[in-house]
Amino acid sequence: FEDEKLQLRLKPDERRKNDVVMKTSSTMLPEATVHDQAINSSTITKLDAREAVLLPSAGAGGVEDMVKTLAGVSSTNELSSQYNVRGGNFDENLIYVNGIEIYKPFLVGSGQQEGLSFINSRLVSNIEFSAGGFSTEYGDKLSSVLDISYKKPTVTEGSLALSMLGAEAHAEGQAFKNRMSYLIGARYKNTKYLLGNMHTKANYQPNFTDVQALLTYSVSPRFEITALGYYSRNSYLMIPTTRETDFGNLQASYRLKVYFDGQELSRYTTGLGAVTFNYSPNEDLNLKLITSGYSAVESETYDIQGQYWIGLLETNPGSEEYGNVISNQGVGTYIEHARNSFYTRVFNIDHKGAYTYNDNTLKWGLRYQHQYFDDFINEWDMVDSAGYTQPHTIDSILNPNNSMQTPLELKNVSKGHNELNVNCLDGYLQNSWQFENEKGNIWVLTAGLRLNYWGYNSSVNVSPRAGIAFKPQKYPNMTFRLSGGVYVQPPFYRELRMFDGSLVSKDDALVQKSYQVVLGHEYRFTAWDRPFVLTSEIYYKYLKDIIPYEVDNIRIRYYADQKATGYATGIDLKVNGEFVKGIESWASVSVMKTAENIKYYINSDGQILSQ
Q1: Which pTM value belongs to this model?
Q2: What angle do CA 216, 217, 219 make, to 5 degrees?
């Protein structure tokens, strides 16, 4: 309360009554910073969720754009939320939101089609990322895991953001006498102004919209129910007109000029619903039951004809024709056609538990998953170069004695209708021990076993994983880590479909495997009177039974009936801290070498290649 001062002047024998009402006051305390002093015994990196909101992005999501800046992570498309980790591809990364695995659209072939990421940055409270060597509590992928936790609101607040690229809004708060919390977010995005500056001049009409909500109801202090809902509708229409691209070098430069007819229309509608029952009978035991369903309806249709000219450019700066085409080198036409539709349902029922006793933590989990796919594909390309269709069939020019008509051959023909049901079962058991010896050195040991049953070919895979962390008493600012194990990745339909549209046989289907070891070091130091952390990791991944693939923009197409071996090795360095006082930032550098030995594969032209 505020101080109240009264000045009284009384006469002799005077009595006076004064009623004083105290006025409330408030004092703004200085900011408090909480530092985590626990041992980081795993390869998990924690990121500040507030940075994801502030990070300017032209892509599909702020969280993924922040992940792309980490050591070992790379991306070649700023309009996409997808990324590669330590030599892997887009399909090898796990993403969880509140313990629920998130899936990406199947037919998306380029970053401008992708739309919005599932993760809404304004709803996020915690971000954890591992580039490899993660523990058994995470699922079956070869490269990385991104674990997202959404907020559990305690106050009522909201936000609204408008820009030339779209709008987003969110609201959060509590209701029913603080027994229920709600978190709601909606986004709209339109990248038309960005796409207008691309090499291909076209009428772009992209529209991406999503809405999601998280409701949490506390039945009792030890039992709560959480419901997560998500709906997304993405539409991408492109009517191309022209494209002009220059390529070559100073000695020989060329210009490709293309005139288009036709259009492309793609639609992706996805939905997810999940209910989590969280029960803690006491402070040491936590039990979860998660049921979730994911559905996606996707379509991709296009008929685009391009008539192209290739011209030789004048490269002599002294010539009047400098920068202009001085002779035509080639002319032709190509047609791209597709009528593709894809429908999938994925149902999960998942139990997770954790029990803490003494200095140990025991974790376990069991999940049943049902996958349903209905895929219709019909796409082909035709290339006509100087009046000859490629691939070129035997005709009267090559064989004058043959007067028979030869059929028209098209390139990259994929036709098929596949309907597939797959049942999967996986589980894990993991324990962590923490102990301190008589010298004051602290050790943390984590070991676990993961089992996976893949119903497509009834294969069972075992994945032991372990990690150890050491914090010496003599050097308290340092932590040493060693982790690794076996990682498997059963195909999720994309890896089963071959180039012609058919599915690989059960006998030829492969579960990809990776044997990984990661050696890490963490050093905390002070510079400019501010705290910094230097993190380094050396890793080696041996890859077995991996499926060769080709990448076109962000679309991956697998040679599903082929196999290969390989490896990836390298070092990642990252230093983070307050380079500018009050602002958390980091700098990272990575060096990697990777190689693949393909036994044999058949490329899209039908040629058998081997090594």
Answers
A1: 0.86
A2: 150
